[in-house]
Amino acid sequence: MIELSKEDIKILEILQTDANRSSTDIAESLNMSQSPCWRRINRLEVSGVIERKVAIVNREKLGIDLVAFTTINLREAGRMHLENFEAGILQFDEVIECYTMTGAWDYMLKIVVRDIRHYENFVRNQLLELSMIGEVHSHIAVTEIKNSTKLPLASQLLTS
Asked: Using N-to-C axis directions, what is the helix angle for 34-46 and 6-17, rounded to 10°?
């Protein structure tokens, strides 16, 4: 874990909201000089704290309307089954998040597709081709209340 100053955290909060802002603009908003601000941003990039900068695409404007949270149990436990499942999941663009879980399920996937027909097709013809899958349960999102990529930095990293 890298040590972050209050200024680093403020820079990260700004960049999480708008990664297009220049170091000059960020420096001005934080009342600091441009060069030290740029050096801080560069250090955050080189250290891997800033992993990459991406465009967040509005899926609904593209007609990708269905979000499913899909829980998976494997047929059998074992390192080989886990590794094969995880390697298989990495091949599916429709799976935008995948987590190992505690409790009743081995994995939870977040899957985005155009509609319910595309979801059914994906599950039947792609996901279930992974032979190590024992159970699949689908939970279809109805209304999106909050969807954020912004981490809660100040509340988690700043101590009083």
From this structure: 80
